[in-house]
Design brief:
single chain; alpha+beta; seven-stranded antiparallel β-sheet; 15 helices
């Protein structure tokens, strides 16, 4: 029988781990550990005796080999920007920080690939691509601090997924350290490699429960020669869906962003955001932030202006402003990226990261709002998100003047109501944030039982001692 899993290793075992990375990178000071033990929403607080900061794949491999031998639980962590608790050590597990694995090993413009280590900050990867006139299109509000390893482990989505796909689709090859310390090197740049089972994608979205991603080959794209950004007032989600389909069929360019926001969340941004102003002269019930890109340097603006004129005539758009320059375009996106933070001053906020088929978004929004307000009178649904790929952040702010703790105590009740409607529309309760701990207990209720059984079998095969991120996902 295997010995039990150790969540809080003995001093002699901690010394052996510290020897792998050196005392400087074996962090035990409580003040230094504190930022790594809480996630951005403040929902979870963890504890650990040590955080290990390896500087190479070899050191990660040595750590996992020792952890497997000693049955020591490990929680991998990147930029600590996750929103479902997947990166938090709840029971004293050791943190394995990937932040020192921060090298961009290669940028190959001819092959349209870039090889990054797991600790490379997303913004740094974007800048490296731009330096060779290429685009790495993954874009998130946390891109200044989230890391490539975390992006892949959580299968991040973001605002560019409509045109370029989510993290899984942006990865060509991967290097992974398995639970027993073996290194699987699949760092190839190939689009075609039909040599048996494709194991790469097992580890994308696995949240560090099957292995630890240490490097990846990422897809690059030609940089657009023209980009137009529009802020649109629209009468309803139904109009927004029709507008999206019209844009995709008629515009002589690629719709690379299509974000939907209710007026309520825009009001939060205007009230609490820094350097935020209303792009339109009068309020509208809903807004769309649309970005269109083209490889042709000329003609895109005229094309977008004509399209918007037609959309206004068809009453799909009530008012519109087209960014006159890059600064104004950035101000539109700044508004969008503040939407998570500006909810905090309004009190408690119960979150949902869900997806439904695009055509079902209007019905989902109407049904969910009716159900939530009926459950908690006075609660304020403030949905926003990536309408182009069906991903809505269906957030609910507390009633004005309500007790925050009492409202947040209804988290599971509100989740149950919203998730039921999501499933009625054949959607997903986790579109891009993952499962972590927050949604772990809900997973068996929504996942196909055969698929869930296979997930458990794969976990048992790759991590038989259960040392990798225990208590997360499964």
């Amino acid at each position: 029988m295997n010995s039990p899993l150790r969540h809080s290793p003995a001093p002699d075992v901690l010394s052996r781990f510290a020897a792998i990375v050196g005392d400087k990178y074996a962090i035990t000071d409580a003040n230094d550990l504190a930022p790594h033990l809480i996630e951005g929403r403040g929902l979870y607080h963890g504890r650990t005796a040590m955080m290990l900061r390896p500087g190479s794949t070899a050191e990660v491999a040595a750590i996992l080999k020792l952890a497997n031998e000693t049955r020591t639980a490990i929680v991998p962590q990147g930029g600590n920007t996750g929103l479902v608790g997947g990166q938090i050590p709840f029971d004293g597990e050791l943190i394995l920080s990937l932040q020192r694995l921060d090298k961009i090993r290669e940028v190959d413009a001819q092959s349209n690939t870039m090889t990054c280590e797991a600790g490379v900050v997303l913004q740094k990867a974007q800048e490296a691509a731009a330096a060779v006139d290429r685009l790495f299109p993954l874009s998130l509000g946390s891109e200044g601090s989230c890391t490539i390893g975390g992006n892949l482990s959580s299968n991040a989505g973001g605002t560019g997924a409509l045109a370029y796909g989510i993290a899984r689709e942006l990865m060509v090859g991967v290097e992974v350290v398995l639970a027993d310390g073996r290194v699987m090197n699949l760092l190839r740049k190939l689009k075609k490699d039909n040599t048996g089972y494709d194991l790469r994608h097992l580890f994308v979205g696995a949240e560090g429960t099957l292995g630890i991603i240490t490097a990846a080959v990422l897809k690059l794209f030609p940089r657009p020669r023209a980009i137009e950004t529009a802020w649109l007032g629209v009468p309803s989600p139904e109009a927004a869906v029709k507008l999206l389909n019209l844009a995709q069929s008629q515009l002589a360019g690629t719709v690379t962003g299509f974000e939907l926001m209710v007026r309520g969340i825009v009001e939060f941004a205007l009230k609490h955001g820094h350097n935020v102003r209303d792009p339109l002269s009068s309020p509208h019930p809903w807004y769309v932030l649309m970005e269109v890109s083209s490889q042709q340097a000329e003609g895109l603006r005229d094309n977008v202006e004509e399209f918007l004129g037609n959309a206004i005539e068809q009453e799909l758009v009530s008012d519109a402003t087209l960014a006159a320059n890059l600064d104004q375009a950035n101000s539109f996106w700044h508004m969008r990226h503040t939407l998570t933070e500006v909810q905090k001053p309004e009190g408690g906020s119960i979150k949902h990261d869900v997806s439904v088929p695009v055509a079902a978004i209007p019905a989902f929004l109407a049904e969910a709002s009716d159900a939530v307000v009926k459950l908690i009178p006075g609660s304020r649904p403030v949905p926003f998100g990536h309408l182009g790929d069906g991903n809505i952040h269906y957030n609910v702010s507390q009633p004005i003047g309500a007790d925050k703790d009492a409202f947040l105590a209804r988290w599971k009740d509100v989740n149950a109501v919203v998730d039921k409607i999501v499933l009625q529309h054949h959607g997903s309760i986790s579109a891009e944030h993952g499962i972590g701990k927050l949604k772990r207990d809900s997973l068996p209720k929504v996942k196909d039982p055969v698929a869930l059984s296979l997930m458990r079998d794969i976990k048992g095969l790759l991590d038989p001692n259960g040392i990798l991120n225990p208590g997360k996902v499964l």
